[in-house]
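Hello Y.,

Per our agreement to keep a running log of every chain we model this quarter, I'm adding this entry. I've kept the format consistent with earlier entries: sequence first, then predicted structure.
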Amino acid sequence: MTGYSTEDLAGDWEFKILRAVTRQFHDPDKLRKALDEEAQAGWILVEKFDDQRLRLKRPMSAREHDHELSVDPYRTTYGMNETTLAIIVIFCVLTIPLMIGLVIALTR
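Predicted structure for the entry above:
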């Protein structure tokens, strides 16, 4: 992982981690879309940790324009949230056995 430079820490910067619950940042088009959205708020890519996490920074002066944005400048999740993913997984875990049981019952 990239360390913070003395300039970053002494300077007028703020940092955040943008996370995705799925591998959104593996797809170059989705990565570019996320970075373009973040750039509207002045965020700059510092490091791509993996296909689910990005480290970004922006000058603190960018806060002055936050009220003009259509995107939350402090969002930390990109794409589907963890709750939605959990609901999908639970639905699949419960539905698949029911469907198999229904198919077995109808074929008897």
